Amino acid sequence: MLGWQIFRHALRMLTGNAAAIVRLYLVPLLVMTGALFAAAYLFFSVTNMAIGPVWLTLLTAVLVAVPFAIVAITWHRYVLLEILPAHILPPIDPGRLGIYLQRLLLIGLMVAVALVPALILVSGMLTGLTGLSATTLLPLVRFGLSSVAVAAILRWSPALVAAALGQSLELQASWRVTAPFSKDLIVTGLCVEGLFWLLNLPLGQLTGAMAPAFWVSLLMLLRGIVMLCLATTVFGYVIEKRALT
Questions:
Q1: Is the CB of residue 92 less than 8 Å from the CB of residue 74?
Q2: CB 5 within 8 A of CB 184
Q3: What sign has the CA pseudo-torsion 117, 118, 122, 125?
Q4: What's the pLDDT tens digit per position in 105-142?
Q5: Contact by Cβ (8 Å): 169, 240
Q6: In the predicted model, is pLDDT for residue 104 greater than 70?
Q7: Which of 14, 58, 77, 81 has the most CB atoms in a 10 Å sphere around its CB?
Q8: Do 60 and 216 contact (CB within 8 A), yes or no?
């Protein structure tokens, strides 16, 4: 099944290049981890914050987005062009970085505009249910919607990778070219959500504020890296016609 093969190839890319991830992305990853940990710690430990959760989310997104984009651009170029930076701090091309961030923001907004109303609608439909039905159905619906969101991101992701490589591929063209693989990418999305559902299980056993904050920030960081590997895999397979070896 192609969706599973894409997921497996991305995981192999991650595990097979673990040393390169540390070597290339140490500084940006530290910035991202610090921002995620601080946000998670505030969420778990502080009840009366000076800023609300929405502003906390926006601030965290800004602190994470720029180093994430730097990591992403360097990763795509390392895997697909075999360009290895000479220094521990990845090189920054303002032009590529600006285009990448712009497209990343647009993708995030489009997914949010589609996903949030769907979650609200489904939650409202299930409010009349009680007992096991509501307890079971709502998590399953969220799981399914999250999987579809991952698939949508992957369908737009070739435009991100193209920006990193200095190539011309707009979001609309990316959506069209990945259309034949839409069902396969939903399977990939199900695999991603299944993986992180399993990894999220220990969270309920953690106590205090530090341990849950560390685990949540670690999983968010890992999810970002997995999505980078998936985006690179999709670009290599769909656009460059590379084999999923």
A1: no
A2: no
A3: positive
A4: 999 999 988 887 887 777 667 666 555 555 677 778 88
A5: no
A6: yes
A7: 77
A8: no
